[in-house]
Amino acid sequence: MLIKDMNWFQVEDYLKHDDRVIMPMGSTEQHAYLSLCTDFILSSRIAEEAGTRMNIPVYPGLPFGMASYFTGFPGTVNIRPDTYGALITDILDSLHESGFRRIFLVNGHGGNSPVQTFIGNWLNQHEDARVVIHNWWASPEVMKRVRAISSNASHASWMENFPWNRIPGISMPQEEKPGINPAKLGQLPASAVRAYIGDGNYGGEYQRPDEEMMDIWSAGVEETCHLLENVWVAPMHN
Amino acid sequence: MLIKDMNWFQVEDYLKHDDRVIMPMGSTEQHAYLSLCTDFILSSRIAEEAGTRMNIPVYPGLPFGMASYFTGFPGTVNIRPDTYGALITDILDSLHESGFRRIFLVNGHGGNSPVQTFIGNWLNQHEDARVVIHNWWASPEVMKRVRAISSNASHASWMENFPWNRIPGISMPQEEKPGINPAKLGQLPASAVRAYIGDGNYGGEYQRPDEEMMDIWSAGVEETCHLLENVWVAPMHN
Amino acid sequence: MLIKDMNWFQVEDYLKHDDRVIMPMGSTEQHAYLSLCTDFILSSRIAEEAGTRMNIPVYPGLPFGMASYFTGFPGTVNIRPDTYGALITDILDSLHESGFRRIFLVNGHGGNSPVQTFIGNWLNQHEDARVVIHNWWASPEVMKRVRAISSNASHASWMENFPWNRIPGISMPQEEKPGINPAKLGQLPASAVRAYIGDGNYGGEYQRPDEEMMDIWSAGVEETCHLLENVWVAPMHN
Amino acid sequence: MLIKDMNWFQVEDYLKHDDRVIMPMGSTEQHAYLSLCTDFILSSRIAEEAGTRMNIPVYPGLPFGMASYFTGFPGTVNIRPDTYGALITDILDSLHESGFRRIFLVNGHGGNSPVQTFIGNWLNQHEDARVVIHNWWASPEVMKRVRAISSNASHASWMENFPWNRIPGISMPQEEKPGINPAKLGQLPASAVRAYIGDGNYGGEYQRPDEEMMDIWSAGVEETCHLLENVWVAPMHN
Amino acid sequence: MLIKDMNWFQVEDYLKHDDRVIMPMGSTEQHAYLSLCTDFILSSRIAEEAGTRMNIPVYPGLPFGMASYFTGFPGTVNIRPDTYGALITDILDSLHESGFRRIFLVNGHGGNSPVQTFIGNWLNQHEDARVVIHNWWASPEVMKRVRAISSNASHASWMENFPWNRIPGISMPQEEKPGINPAKLGQLPASAVRAYIGDGNYGGEYQRPDEEMMDIWSAGVEETCHLLENVWVAPMHN
Amino acid sequence: MLIKDMNWFQVEDYLKHDDRVIMPMGSTEQHAYLSLCTDFILSSRIAEEAGTRMNIPVYPGLPFGMASYFTGFPGTVNIRPDTYGALITDILDSLHESGFRRIFLVNGHGGNSPVQTFIGNWLNQHEDARVVIHNWWASPEVMKRVRAISSNASHASWMENFPWNRIPGISMPQEEKPGINPAKLGQLPASAVRAYIGDGNYGGEYQRPDEEMMDIWSAGVEETCHLLENVWVAPMHN
């Protein structure tokens, strides 16, 4: 149930019996040997699988996010935070104007999380709405499975290496990269980040067997479906 | 040659021998009986076909654009002009930082055109860059073929009805809708626009035979390829 | 009936029987051998003649507009699009607060047209208002007369050469300049624009007889008056 | 020597031997029985007389300024401070790009003075420039003459009543209005300001003989000319 | 009665019987031999003494203000005017949301005064509120006492030298510095300001006996208390 | 070594041998029975103790932060994220202009963390600078001690109850409050947050013995000192 397969009459009909909607939030940024669009591909696919199963419309995802620390790697796109906050605000305004009230954002990029602060302010102006940012990769069921394999798992490592964001014909390094110190990164400009993290993997092996990855993936879809049904706090005083 | 099928090493390699790049600009807004994502689907596909043929990388497209006049139709997303200008500015900054110098934007939505003014100001700060907005549907070769069929052709009419943005199972009205007066629309808020334009078609039949549409489509791809090769003005004094 | 000849008591009185108002939008930018203020002078004069004839108050015009592509020519003033959008928004807020509901902007500069997008968003917040941007030089009756003389007519050519924006003592070149390719201009920074267009004329002769020009002028004033009476779409559902 | 009587070639020539330029800053706001454009008319005229005498080009003035406290009076236009700051910043950028280095702003409205803070920040980015805001009515020679007539002189009183901003056919009240307490005004919204100040005069008689006014006017022009020649601080370390 | 000594229950209780609140506005900027935080220390202390005496809660003060002209002196912090206006606007929104209606800002820095324009616009959106900026050092009773000692008294001179903002162990120059011409300063970037004003004192002796200073201080506290009780204009039509 | 005890000469001297500086970031927001300024008091005190020990200057802290979710509790101040980002950006610009290069922000409020994204963009424009946000309460040594006492410890619980932010005369509830589900909070407007969390404590007892608290405090100061010496990544390629 994708918005791109619907016209406006169909959205109007849907809103007569439900007010939930999904939008993926991605990023186009270095992911070492994996696709530059890894966060966009994965969040979009999680959203589409869950939305289809739950009969909730899924908007096309945002391909670009906040990634200032990766602009030293060619191909990366960085949206500044005030731009990104304005963009999300405009989208929320539009969804609310359409009639959606429970808005579920499937986020694929940790760097996008600060947009929560813009959403908090938006909510104060739209008291009948609810907005959830779901960091699908960081949810308990997904994290449990990741850690069962290895605690050395991070940005651009095996943990993000799924069949749908690998580049055909690119073989992965065989070693396990030691974890970088993420606390060091925050103080650095992008040029120093590139010097510090080499190929872009933050730590961990580069690839794991597909059956392990599909188990993680299924848990991600399941958990997203579960939240779409159960996460909402009912209106209290409004 | 899509950015989503490339990693950062590959972009770095590409930039050693070429500096062109493509990005589609779409919109998610009422298109009468057609997909809400019509402008996004068509501009993305034109861009991808042309980029693949010309070996120029294509970024994922922007799904949302400036559509304030359509917010009375559910499903429409409207990005305000200062947000949209900031978004394009951030993307241009990132592409320039990566090393791209000739940036080709395939635009699928007339309402996005005003972003040209933001681009003009950006260019004054980046004198070694060139940026083209290509309104693919309004280019001479496409327009010639459209007018050969009918001069009554506009937003959400047959002119935008391609196999890839029709909604399965939705049948089209058989009549030809008289053209609305676009000059009247500009003065109206979105609620009055909806009252004025009914189903959303601005004028014309709703569908034409696919062979006619594929001829238009081919011309659109051809012309885009031609421009990617020939449109650029060489640096003059910088 | 110029606002500069009215005090606030008189505006309050006027608003008891009419809610229309006029404001010119100009630009100060290179116009080859003609006045830098050509667009400001002409839009102001069209507005004042029409407003006087129709008994509708005319605000003083905006002398500066969006002209990023001409900043390579000394004397040009460029207002960035977010500034210009904010300026028009503040003015519309003020006119609405005063009690005006039908606002007619006489625009003298094509580069100002993108402000329409800001106006569209403003209208959605002020559903009882109507706002028209009237590009006086591009209206059907004016264009018909221009084309009857020559299709080679553009920025800073004879088409904009009226008695009230010529510089005393400056003689015009006698040749007819070939039209530049406007499609090339959009991709260029201002420095390259200057190198490309030489004296600033976009194409055409530099001067035509005053009787031809006065015929064009009269048509411009007439058409403006006609629109001030007839262009408005009545409120529909608000 | 008005910019509206110059083309870009002439500005380019001027800049070979001088780098000074003048721009008036006005406001369109209630002035009791006087023209709504009083501040715009007076600052423009002072600027034009001084510029002509000193052979310094004068740009057309800004008709609108910051006047939030007067929006309860119909006809008033209020520009918000961030808009006004952005507008002045864009203009300064343009003048600097043209080649002007000593920029003299003739201000006719006290409410515009806070834009000085935006100018201060702009100067830090343009160390070779100088910018003066000249509040012509508050300068020592003008104030000396005003106070010699009466210390009860303020906004919209006799002090601002010149032949060029009176409304034909409007007779002035004969009494002298007691001064309002300006300190009270700052805490009030516009609706309460209107209730507080009645016709809009802040205090004083409504009119004085023209010969007194012309003496004040001449002093204003003289002082402006004097400053245009002598106010500038030479570059020190840049 | 300081907000830092209150919890939210206590503020809720207070608001049942009073709606006044105080916030100091300071600056951290060069003050010659005195503390960089002079304006912050003094405005905070005036506010706290007055608030305690009057039983009105005092928020912690803003340590930073608008000081673009002093950035050539190490230690100075400059907040740009649009940032500062947004900051004050957010604070006013919060205080109003809490339930405060009469907001009293004790300002210690002349450069902050332009924020009045932002406040004026905010008031128009909150007609039941009143906001006063009190420049404590410039109030009549304080000024009377300052001038009785010397008319040569200005930024960073004896006039601002109180026991609570002197640096221990720093001795003051014994001479009286001639007044600089403040009218010259406004046209200069910060680097030239530093060259122009030397140690940072705008004019006057560097220190006076504490008994003189305590008399000034007491007048400042008294006058602040008086205004907190008497300055307010009652609602008129709202 | 507090900036409020220094003049600009002393800062200039300091910068000849060191380039580190500290600034606390607080918030004024509900903390149940504790001071509204808890986050401001604690971050300021940690900063001041560490700065004094390490001979690094400490600026006065920011009393207000991003707290949109608490505006339903009287006394809370909420700074919007674009305002807060602009504020931090202006401060970083000023510190860099002064000559500081290693900037250490002691943050007392989790809601301020998203400002990291603004800082990342700022760093890309100032490649010779380093900026660290130190969430003092969440650092490993502090967290280890907190968890040794209880894992039920959160906003406004015993974990934040130190001698310096208790309200004299207010007694604490004796029970242990069950932890609220923080994941639920993010989707809610402030009014619903207040209904959901009651007195404002997120979970845990309200008070623990001072000796336990002082052990935590000491660890916080120690760790801050350690980081001030050791956290910095040396310049790599710039």
UniProtKB/TrEMBL annotation, chains A, B, C, D, E, F:
Query: The organism sits in which domain of life?
Result: Bacteria
Q: Which SUPFAM superfamilies match?
A: Creatininase
One GO biological process term is:
riboflavin biosynthetic process
Q: Which UniProt keywords apply?
A: Hydrolase, Metal-binding, Zinc
What cofactor is needed?
Answer: Zn(2+)
The record's InterPro entries line, in alphabetical order, gives: Creatininase-like_sf, Creatininase/forma_Hydrolase
* One Gene Ontology term of the molecular function aspect: metal ion binding
Q: Which family does it belong to?
A: Belongs to the creatininase superfamily.
Instruction: State what protein this is by name.
Output: Creatininase family protein
